[in-house]
Amino acid sequence: MMSMPIKNMIGRRSFSSSAFLKSKPRHLVNTIELSNEELASLVGKAEAFKKQVRSGNSVPIEQHQKLLGKLVALLFSKRSTRTRISTEGAAAYFGAQPMFLGKEDIQLGVNESTYDTTKVISSMTSCIFARVNSHQEILDLCEHSSVPIINSLCDMYHPLQAITDILTIKEAFGKTEGLKLAWIGDSNNVINDLAIASLRSGISVAISIPKDIEFDPEVGKAASEIASDKGLSFDIFHEPSKAIDNANVIVTDTWISMGQESEKQAKMLQFDGYQITQNMISQGNASSDWKFMHCLPRHAEEVADDVFYSKNSLVFEEAENRLYAAMAVIEAFVVNKGDLLK
Questions:
Q1: Taking every annotated instance into account, which residue ranges of this chain make up the domain Aspartate/ornithine carbamoyltransferase carbamoyl-P binding (predicted)?
Q2: Any bridge partners for residue 102, and if so which?
Q3: Which residues contact 118 (CB under 8 A, 6 or more apart)?
Q4: Whole-number Å distance between alpha carbons of 146 and 297
Q5: Do 81 and 132 sit in the same domain of this protein?
Q6: Which of 43, 210, 264, 284 could pair with 244 as two cysteines, CB 3.0-4.6 Å apart?
């Protein structure tokens, strides 16, 4: 039999393999890229998973086999408690094996580029939960990955926390529509996503940040557009009392993020008067049904014990809900291949 010329063999092989190329996966980068309906669907899924787990009833075996034999990568540049536990728990729920990849565990940033690392990890896993430093790292991962990238925190966004927080608010009030959320603290990744998610859920948002801190203009523009479309308010103040006025939900976060420890003294001066106390809430004229939230870890300068450990605090329910948010995201982005309304 006559042998085929090498050139023709290469051409035929390239043509044949192209039929097997994967379509570009959908990634969870932030809540701006979600629609109102998609966010509501993720929150609804998280709520359903929580009821299922909390009921104590046995879960159909098919549920635990959806990702059986698959790997879920946890690519973490920053240490974590809630994110790691919830992600590993969610992966195990679907039968997947979670694989933690800390910055000391792999070659990324030492002997290997982001491109090379992403191509390798995504070729062997079903998705990558990435807890990294810069937002650009998330974008680079998304560009080169053949599997969904789940933004588990970067310096710009924290969508998993936002999904968690909307679920927590919905549980506490039985609804989200018509509520008001007050943020007292820094302009950071947590409020960037929480502001968008709250507005998408029918919650007006009032933010209080120190005078010399600017809220991200791109996030602010997106938030203002959503608020206008839904007939809600989105305001930025420099006085905590103005933000707290008639608020149902009062939220803060750390003033000093990981990697900013050297700035502690300056930050403490910058946020003088921003510690959330019972007196601040009372003088700010919060709604009588107010609840307090914090994504943890908490520091005493951010919120007083009489608020953090009060009957109005939702911090530990909020922490647990990270598990169900992770479950919802895995089902939507991995099991259902990015069809969030399925």
A1: 26-171
A2: 76
A3: 128, 140, 141, 144, 145
A4: 33
A5: yes
A6: 284
pLDDT of residue 261: 65
Q: What CATH number is given to the structural domain containing 229?
A: 3.40.50.1370
**What's the pLDDT tens digit per position in 3-15?**
444 334 334 333 3
Rounded Cα distance, 209 and 214, in Å: 8
Specify if 8 maps to a domain. Answer: no
Domain enclosing residue 103, as ranges = 60-157
- Same domain, residue pair 281 and 148: no
In the chain, the percentage of residues whose pLDDT exceeds 90 is 83
To the nearest 10°, the Cα dihedral for 171, 258, 134, 200? 20
Whether residue 122 sits in one domain with residue 264: no
CB 160 within 8 A of CB 139: no
What is the signed CA dihedral for 143, 146, 147, 151, rounded to 10 degrees?
A: -10
- pTM to 2 decimals? 0.92
* Strand duo 180-184 + 71-76: pairing: unpaired
Residue 113 dihedral angles phi and psi, to the nearest 5°: -80, 165
Alpha carbons within 13 A on the beta-carbon side of 214: 5
Number of domains in the chain: 2
Residue type, 325: A
Using a 10 angstrom Cβ sphere, with 0-12 exposed, 13-18 middle and 19 or more buried, the burial of residue 55 is exposed
Q: Over the chain, what is the mean pLDDT?
A: 92
Asked if residue 262 belongs to a domain, the reply is yes
295 counts as catalytic: yes
* Structural domain includes residue 244: yes
Domain boundary among 94, 123, 157: 157
Which one is catalytic: 127, 142, 154, 295?
295
CB atoms within 10 A of CB 7: 8
List, for residues 184-212, the tens digit of each pLDDT value.
999 999 999 999 999 999 999 999 999 99
Which residue's entry shows tokens 């809900």?
A: 321
Under a CB-based contact definition with an 8 Å cutoff, are residues 157 and 30 in contact? yes
